[in-house]
Amino acid sequence: MVWPGSTFVSTDSHANIMGAIGSFGQGMGDQDIAAAWANGTVWFKVPHSVKININGKRSSNVSAKDIVLNLLSVFGANKLLGYSVEIYGEDIAKLTLDERITISSMGTEMGVIIILFEPSAEIMKFCEEKTGRKLELIKADTDAKYLEVHNLDFGTFVPMVAKPGHPEDDISIKDVKGQKIDSAFIGSCTNGRMDDLRLAASVLKGKKVAPGVVLKVVPATDAIWQQALNEGLIKIFKDAGALVANAGCADVRQDRLDRTVLKKLQ
Fold it and tell me: What is the per-residue pLDDT across 201-259, written as a single tens digit (0 to 9) for each?
């Protein structure tokens, strides 16, 4: 359906997830989508482009979710509102497709139209296998002009957690260590893939969810749910006392941010 350089529209506000493969994804209202289906064309206002260079080395304990939470702590939900954002860096180029999906999907929480990554050779190969044809790498020109250019140091990025209610209201996870919680959520578009579930299972194996805490696990897709079942992860979650729901991209009862949900900090 999509490939690097393509354009995608849907009614999902997280259509910008397509930026993970260098495709432009735009969420629209029902009437706009109906018009696109009827006419085969749709009207766009081209957003201004912003470039973010994340320089230096990424710490081994900084996940893709941490990357976007650190970006939210810098830019908030409004500083890049309505912009198309491109992210570059030596270690950024090494991000897996799953990691890019996590970051691009949360562009919505940053207020951006889309977060775009230049596809790596591995991602181009993956897309060519899925589409069954040779694809052209679409990337920014060397003399591309940007409304803003920001340079950040990867070395300053730390594991973070978002406080309830506002994804941009972030705090270093070490500052809330030991804080009592009521509920936790693992899953959705941003952290419901196999790597996430395997990591969660490695922590929960042989243990129990604390009394009074609700832990919900939602694999991102049916294929991932089935793979988690085949690998025995679902049993680990069940034995630990977690609630495992059907595959999906969100949980209507909890915040999309799927790190441990903290009680309101005083």
Answer: 999 999 999 999 999 999 999 999 999 999 999 999 999 999 999 998 755 444 433 34
Measured N-to-C along each axis, helices 194-204 and 222-230 cross at an angle, to the nearest 10 degrees, of: 40
* Cβ 103 vs Cβ 115: under 8 Å: yes
What mean pLDDT is predicted for residues 85-113?
95
Handedness of CA 114, 24, 222, 228 (dihedral sign): negative
Q: Read off the amino acid at residue 255.
A: D
Give just the sign of the alpha carbon dihedral 207, 259, 94, 12: positive
197-204, long-range: CB within 8 Å, 24+ apart, which pairs? 197/224, 197/228, 197/233, 198/231, 198/233, 200/233, 200/237, 201/233, 201/236, 201/237, 204/236, 204/237, 204/240, 204/242
Q: How far apart are CA 16 and CA 26, in angstroms?
A: 6
Here the tokens at position 81 are 């509102």
- The yes-or-no verdict on residue 263 having pLDDT over 50 is no
Q: Please, what sign has the CA dihedral across residues 119, 15, 96, 55?
A: positive
DSSP 8-state class, residue 111: T
Q: If we measure between CA atoms, which residue out of 234, 128, 130, 126 comes closest to residue 186?
A: 234
**Measured CA angle at 28 (ends 216, 2), to 5 deg:** 75
Q: pTM value?
A: 0.87
φ/ψ of 156, rounded to 5, equals -90, -5
